[in-house]
Structure formats: structure tokens, C-alpha cells
Automatic annotation (TrEMBL):
This is Beta-lactamase family protein. Residues 60-419 form the Beta-lactamase-related domain. Signal peptide: none annotated. PANTHER family: BETA-LACTAMASE FAMILY PROTEIN (AFU_ORTHOLOGUE AFUA_5G07500) (PTHR43283:SF3), BETA-LACTAMASE-RELATED (PTHR43283). It comes from Bradyrhizobium elkanii. Residues 1-23 are annotated as: Disordered. InterPro entries: Beta-lactam-related (IPR001466), Beta-lactam/transpept-like (IPR012338), Diverse_Enzym_Activities (IPR050789).
Length: 442
């Protein structure tokens, strides 16, 4: 499918509704400032904010690796833009006894979504699209959607969608799309898999074609479901920019931030830097000791060679220092990837009152909602730190995580490679201890 470049457009200032992100200075100021103020390099991963005692957090992470619950973990915690703590414990390859280093490469899975969301927001700042534009303005295959009726047992048991999918819906996972992963036995699960919606050989353009006549699982804006919406956003970036998605993010995000080890595959010369991937001994008991190698997940040779799919929802590899550079670029006090008002809007709740994040394996999570670039904690749960209200965060399925807390000025990145680690107790424990370490040091 050829990129539809004739649909690119620029909105005049008068077209931008009240509350919409403005477009002034977007590329010329913010991105160019970053080119002259490169992101975090390996040499920059050193503590610059002193007086914080992270010994308890370090000891806790060491226990997780000693008890064979994690192969290894690396982290950086920021106070403002300064590094309060950074470190590694454990192994990059447990069997070969290769210690984990800060330059090791991780499969970041859904942490990719932050970069894809930022790519779309750059185009919003330039006036080339608006958050409440219907997606069919740019991708006509997604017009005239149908929605599965409640309790549908057939993919054909549908009703017309009450409204169009907007870019805001896509960025906030409220579009009505699915992943075809978390709902086995349902009509949509079967259809997504038959259409190879998630297949690495399916290009973004072909993915959209595959979705074109499949129903949504709810009316756009009426609920929340984790989905391929951010892959659709990646295709949107291609259509609007006229560039392949990997080319766009390299030029507009990765290169300006100095994220030299982030991409859709690991170059052959760096294969030895890719951290081994593990599964826990028991999915239902995350604290049961034991790890099994699973390097061929999600498919044999994953991330070791290029594939046609530029998976905007989960396809990147990266390093600790690259992810720190990205998170730092979204913090006040220096050059930013996006305008401050764009970042503020990305960190604002985009769901309607009463809508919460929910996963099939965990159910609804009251108090946790979604912004334009990640999850949002409105009311901390017992596993969160009490000061986490207002935190923007997200994690990849293998345990790479980031968070930004505007209220406390704390941000952080954690990197691990254990399946389903985004819900493992280690991540919540580290974040709670990081908040406490900073609180004690102030």
C-alpha cells in the first residue's frame, strides 16, 4: 500500500479549538534545541543529586535476583532532571554469568508506545492533525465502523458505531479496538489472529487493511481496552508525514535525543548486548523461584533481524541510558521533546468519569486511568506509594518500566527481562522504595 501523502494538511490557528495543543515553534524550537543538547549518554548515567539513600532499594532488587525471581535489573531515578540513583544488579545472561551493564539492550515491548505517542503529538504541535480529528480523515479504511453487540457470539453480530474513532481515542485506548491476546475464545480474538493483525510480517498498512471490516468491541469513547490502537497511530504518522515510521522517529525523536541503541531490531554487531529473556516458574505464582529461558518469544529470532512490521505498540529495543534520555526530555528544567503544554495535556486524564484501566487477567483498576501517552494514577492503590497521585507511567510485558510524577518531581526507568514482569511485585516495591528514598533525603 502506498502512503497517502495527499491527505496531509495543516490547520490554521483559527481551526484549533479551545484547549487544543497549539502549533507554534514545535519543530524549529524544541527539536532543534534537543539537537544541540543531546540526550543522556552512558557517561551521563552518574549520580548528580546527592544525599539520597537508595541502599534499601538496591538490597531489595538484589534479593529478587538472588532468589531467582529476576535475572537482573537496572534502574535510574531522577529528581527533577538530576540522577538521584542508578545501578544494575544481577545478570544479562544468567547461564553464561554475564553481569548486567548499563549498555545492555532490552526488549522494551509496550514502552514503545511512549515514543509512538510522542511522534503523533509532534504532528499535532505542527498543526498537521488534531486530537479530535476522525481517523478516517487520514485513513479512510477505518470509516463507518461497526461494533459487536453485547454478548455477541459471531463476528457478524454488530450494530453501527455511534461515532467515529478520533486520534484522541486511539492515543487513550478508548477507540474500541482490541489486541486479540487477552480474550481467547471470543469472536474478535479469532478474527484478529486469522487476519494476522499482530504478525511481524504484517506491515502497518496491511494491518489497517485487515482491521478495515472487523468490528470494534465497544463504541468509541465508551470504555477502555488495551489494543493495537497505538499501531494504528504509527500508521497515521506514516500517512501524515509521508515517511516510514522508523524513519520518522529516528529523525524526530531518536537522533535528537541521542538514542543510538533504540530501534526495531538489534544490529548483528550488537547481538551480544541483547539481554537474555526469561519466564517465571509459575505464571499464577510470581514469587515462586525459578526462571526459564524464552529468547524466542514472541517468535523465533525476535529482534535479531529486521521485519516488515514497525510495531508502534511494542516493537522497539532500547537501553537504560536511551530510555532515561527519553524520560528526561519530557521533564521541566531543560530542552524538551514536546512543548510544556503538550506534555501537560499528555499527562491529563482522557477518559470519562468512571472509566478505568482494566485487563482480563487483573480486572478493573479503580483509580487508574489513561492520558495521551501512558497510564495515569488518580488515586493510588495499596501497592502504589501514597504520593503517586498524578503519576504518568507504563511498562512493557518483560519488565521495562518508566514513570513521571509531576507532583513530587520524581521520575524513573527500570529495565528487566522477565515475562509478565509489568505486574510482578518487584516493580511496585522498587517504585515505593524510590519514592521513600527521595522523601527521606529532602
Amino acid at each position: 500500500m502506498v502512503v497517502n501523502t495527499d491527505r496531509r494538511r495543516r490547520h490554521s490557528r483559527s481551526d484549533i479549538p479551545s484547549g487544543e495543543i497549539d502549533s507554534d515553534r514545535a519543530k524549529t524550537c524544541y527539536t532543534e534545541d534537543l539537537r544541540h543538547n543531546r540526550g543522556t549518554t552512558m557517561e551521563d548515567l552518574k549520580v548528580t543529586a546527592t544525599g539520597y539513600d537508595f541502599a534499601p532499594a538496591r538490597a531489595a532488587m538484589q534479593r529478587f535476583t538472588d532468589n531467582d525471581l529476576l535475572s537482573g535489573i537496572s534502574w535510574t531515578v531522577l529528581v527533577g532532571r538530576d540522577i538521584a540513583d542508578t545501578g544494575c544488579v544481577g545478570w544479562a545472561d544468567k547461564e553464561a554469568q554475564i553481569p548486567l551493564r548499563t549498555d545492555h539492550i532490552f526488549r522494551v515491548f509496550s514502552n514503545t508506545k511512549l515514543i509512538t505517542s510522542c511522534a503523533a503529538l509532534l504532528l499535532v504541535e505542527e498543526g498537521r492533525l488534531r486530537l479530535d480529528d476522525p481517523i478516517e480523515t487520514f485513513i479512510p479504511q477505518l470509516r463507518n465502523r461497526k461494533v459487536l453487540r453485547p454478548g455477541a457470539t459471531s463476528i457478524d453480530d454488530t450494530e453501527p458505531a455511534q461515532r467515529s474513532i478520533t486520534i484522541r481515542h486511539l492515543l487513550s485506548h478508548s477507540a474500541g479496538l482490541s489486541y486479540g491476546l487477552f480474550d481467547p475464545g471470543t469472536p474478535i480474538f479469532k478474527a484478529y489472529n486469522e487476519r494476522k493483525i499482530l504478525n511481524p510480517m504484517t506491515t502497518l498498512a496491511d494491518m489497517v487493511d485487515g482491521l478495515s471490516d472487523l468490528p470494534l468491541v465497544f463504541h468509541p469513547g465508551s470504555s477502555w481496552e488495551y489494543s493495537v490502537a497505538i499501531d494504528v497511530v504509527a500508521r497515521l504518522v506514516e500517512v501524515v508525514s509521508g515517511q516510514p515510521f522508523d524513519t520518522f522517529i529516528k529523525a524526530r525523536i531518536l537522533d535528537p535525543l541521542g538514542m543510538v541503541d533504540t530501534g526495531f531490531h538489534v544490529p548483528e554487531k550488537d547481538h551480544d548486548r541483547l539481554v537474555a529473556y526469561y519466564a517465571g516458574a509459575d505464571l499464577m505464582d510470581p514469587m515462586k523461584p525459578g526462571l526459564t529461558r524464552t529468547d524466542n518469544a514472541p517468535y523465533p529470532g525476535a529482534y535479531l533481524r529486521p521485519v516488515p512490521r514497525f510495531n508502534g505498540g511494542g516493537g522497539l529495543v532500547s537501553t537504560l541510558h536511551d530510555m532515561v534520555a527519553l524520560i528526561r526530555s519530557l521533564l521541566p528544567g531543560g530542552p524538551t521533546l514536546l512543548k510544556p503544554e503538550t506534555i501537560a495535556q499528555a499527562m491529563a486524564n482522557q477518559l470519562t468519569p468512571g472509566q478505568w484501566i482494566r485487563f482480563a487477567m487483573m480486572g478493573e483498576q479503580p483509580g487508574k486511568t489513561y492520558g495521551l501517552a501512558g497510564g495515569l494514577i488518580l488515586n493510588p492503590s495499596p501497592i502504589d506509594h501514597p504520593d503517586a497521585a498524578g503519576e504518568l507511567y507504563w511498562g512493557g510485558v518483560a519488565g521495562t518500566q518508566w514513570w513521571i510524577s509531576p507532583k513530587t518531581g520524581i521520575a524513573g526507568v527500570m529495565m528487566a527481562q522477565r515475562q509478565m514482569a509489568f505486574v510482578h511485585p518487584f516493580s511496585f516495591e522498587f517504585k515505593r522504595m524510590a519514592y521513600d528514598a527521595v522523601k527521606r533525603g529532602r
